[in-house]
Amino acid sequence: MLYLILCFLLGFFNSSLLSLSLSLPPTHLCRPEQSSALLQFKSNFSLSISNCSQVHIDSVHKMDSWDEGTDCCKWEGAVCDNKKGNVIGLDLSCSGLIGSLQSNSSLFSLQNLRWLNLAGIGFGNSEIPSEFGKLRSLTYLNLSATGLTGLVPPEISLLSEIVSLDLGVNFLFFRNHDFNMLVHNLTKLENMILDVIDLSLVVPYSFLNLTVSLKHLSLSDCNLQGNFPTQVFHLPYLQNIKLRNNANLSGYLPETNWISPLRLLDVLGTRISKGLPVSIGNLKHLKKLNLDSCVFMGSIPSALGNLTKIAFLDISGNMFQGQIPDVFGNLNDLRSMDFSSNNFSGVFPPSAFNLTSLTFMDFSSNFLQGTLPNNLSGLSYLRELYLSANLLSGRVPGWLFSLPSLEHLDLHSNKLNGPIDPIQEPNLVQQVYLYKNEIQGTIPSSFFELINLASLDLSSNNLSENIKSCMLVKLRNLGFLDLSFNNLLSLTRCSNDVNSALPMINQFHFSSCNMQHLSNNQIHGSITKWEAEGWEGLLTLNLSMNFLTTVEQIPGKHLFILDLRSNSLRGLLPTPPQALCYFLISNNELNGEIPSKICNLRFLYVLDLSKNKLGGTIPDCFGTFSDQLSMVVLRTLNLNGNQLEGSVPQSLKNCYRLEVLDLGNNNINDTFPNWLGTLPHLQVLVLRSNRFHGDIQNFSGTFSFSSLRMIDLSRNEFTGHIPPELFENLKSMKDIQVDKNSVTVTMKGSDFELARILTIFTSIDFSSNHFKGPIPKAIGELNSLIVLNFSHNSLTGNIPPSLRNLAALESLDLSPNKLQGRIPMQLTNLTFLGALNLSHNNLEGPIPLANHFDTFSNDSFAGNSGLCGFPLSKTCGNDQEPKSPPSTVGDESEIALIWKIAAMGYGSGVVLGLSVGYIVFTTGRP
């Protein structure tokens, strides 16, 4: 796109420039050596129409007229003088030529050239030949967007007659010495365009040598570093200066005596700082001011109102603060203003609403207060209005929806608390975002006259109304509708038969509303009609956290995401559309068996049926889909909290991409499914609170749970020894990575549901089984382990000192077992251990006192008759005094680093967030 724009602008500019040259008399022929040089230059190139702009498609035929024996002064793109027949101008910009530029090119024999424009030619990574220094008569040189690479040769500085130099949008770089020589020698320079050239080796103070005749300076995306000299802004003829996207360029604007003919000032994405000086008001000719994403601070001077020629004003993404001065009344040419993402406070400047030429206004992400005016006289041409993330209050005025040109309105995340006023003359607005306010009352019927609406988000308000489906009939373009989290809002069908005209919505969110009118009687037939005749295009449907009791038929044949979580749905599991990828229907009252038809969902990615009353066995069809490619799609299977029986179907081992398997809190009667270890991506395995039994067999093989980061076997009937091979294979628990899903773990004495957790949260819970034998020493290799729970078993032997390596461990529960011996002093090095339970074992000796061990209560050590010392009342003898712990493997800084990384993810060990399904529905919202 940048190339096409350059082609258009440069072609227009240079055709005008060349027309100023002297025309050759019709009878005059150019000199033969000039014609020969041009033909030889032509022979080095071929034509590539794909490189050319469609608006200048005729430019690709520039060389068609270059024929031997004809007058080269009549060739398109060539200009001669009228005395000697020398070629003095050559414009081949945007001609679609590709080839290389060599040092022996015949171009350099045309030493009378004054204008040379080769912009847009594909030179294929050629370097700039030093022979350009021979073209001493050049006043205009444009080599932009040509694919040139390498060092800009110092010979360019020999072109002392140059008035305009454009080398931009190439892969070139300058050495500091060469650049100094360039700006020192080119004393007639008026235009210097070096965008995208690497100037990281150039010291910014080199720009102090720029000639006073300079009018246009463009240095965008040049990797400039250091302080840009303020004196450059004082150049007496400077009209345009662009320094944008130089992230390491600092400096500040002139604070005094800044009188300049500047028309454009663009320092976007730099480190230009300090305040906006009062002297900015002296720039009477300024049309564009872009200070976006800099480091400006302080208040806005009233002198900003003196910029009566300004058309584009962007000061967003800074640290400006205080009241915005109400000085916009005279800025009649202003078309775009962006004050977003600052720290402005106080009331909104009223004069901004009276700007007659404005098309874009953004004051979002500030601390602006007050109410919106009841009426206004301007903004007739406004297309986009962003006032979101402020502290605005009061009503939503109806004039917002009567602005004749408005297309996008965003007022989300304010404190608007009044109703939406009636709309007198509905406009053509397409996108309306009013979510996260405190808007009360009903939605005016005139709101549904906004026939161009494509996206409407009124979620997270206090709206109260019974919306009838026929009210949406006129919104034929509506594709996104979110009415979630309005507790008094409901939706019912109309009594007449107009549902067939419903809009083709593809995302519908009605989460956490009062949906009683969609339960049982009211829903019967309505959703079926929507699906059959109105909502075939529905892709996303969120009806979670309502009071739905029955869903007879799910709308949307092409539904991609369906969220029916946390309702009161009863009966059998509804059959979803076959295109479904995310099916979330947890926390309901569904009963019956899981139908085998569920396996017909060939694109199923996440299936969450947890917390229902589903019975029977797990269908054996998982992993045996008819489409063999489908078995690799399923990532999450959550059946927790049902009444499932039988065994775990071995067909699950075919779900190659499975990451989360949660079968907890059911009645499954089986041995440990060690074959799941072959799933290379399995990260979460929850089998807790079932009837699993028997020994855990030895583990071997390439994919033996190598990606597992959470395993919960608690509250089952497992027996035998805990195999060391299991922990040796848990490679992912030796690293810190990221995963996001929802499971329940026992930590610090309580059950927690970790919704969409980070897998830096790693845990092992084998509690409440019948395990015996020693604790495997190999567990000490799991460096990223956060929770370890072996409680309520019959483990024997000593507590292994290797546990000292669990530097990130927060919770350790080994109660009650049959462990013996002393508490290893090495455990005192677990400085992030917040919960410890060693009670009801056969431990003996003194309780270590080093580090934070003295913060644990008596309950952590109770029921060990051989233990002594604080916090127990039993004191130790002199020969039992605890010793200082030995040094750990790795220093404290390494442990601290692990903790800092972990803390970013889950704070004190638990991150409560939104489940995978809900996150899917909130993506795309600001």
Low-confidence stretches: 1-6, 8-25, 50-57, 497-501, 514-534, 626-631, 737-759, 884-926
Based on the coordinates given, report the CATH architecture of the domain at 671-906.
Alpha-Beta Horseshoe
Share in helix: under 10%
Counted beta strands: 58
Integer-rounded radius of gyration: 37 Å
Helix-strand layout with pairing:
Blueprint lengths: L1 H17 L13 H12 L1 E3 L30 E3 L6 E5 L5 E3 L15 E3 L22 E3 L6 E3 L12 E3 L4 E3 L2 H10 L5 E3 L22 E3 L6 E3 L12 E3 L5 E5 L11 E3 L4 E4 L13 E3 L4 E4 L13 E3 L4 E5 L12 E3 L4 E5 L12 E3 L4 E3 L14 E3 L6 E4 L11 E3 L4 E6 L10 E3 L6 E2 L13 E3 L4 E7 L11 E3 L5 E5 L14 E3 L16 H9 L5 E3 L18 E3 L6 E2 L10 E3 L4 E2 L15 E3 L27 E3 L21 E3 L21 E3 L6 E3 L14 E3 L4 E5 L2 H6 L13 E5 L2 E5 L7 E4 L4 E4 L11 E5 L4 E4 L13 E3 L4 E4 L13 E3 L4 E5 L19 E3 L23 H15 L9 H7 L4
Parallel strand pairs: 3-5, 5-6, 6-8, 7-9, 8-10, 10-11, 11-13, 12-14, 13-15, 14-16, 15-17, 16-18, 17-19, 18-20, 19-21, 20-22, 21-23, 22-24, 23-25, 25-27, 26-28, 27-29, 29-31, 30-32, 31-33, 32-34, 33-35, 35-36, 36-37, 37-39, 38-40, 39-41, 41-42, 42-43, 43-44, 44-46, 45-47, 46-50, 47-51, 50-52, ...
Antiparallel strand pairs: 1-4, 2-3, 48-49
Task: Record keyword descriptors for this entry.
926 residues, mainly beta, Leucine-rich repeat, LRR (right-handed beta-alpha superhelix), 31-stranded mixed β-sheet, seven-stranded parallel β-sheet, 7 helices, disordered N terminus
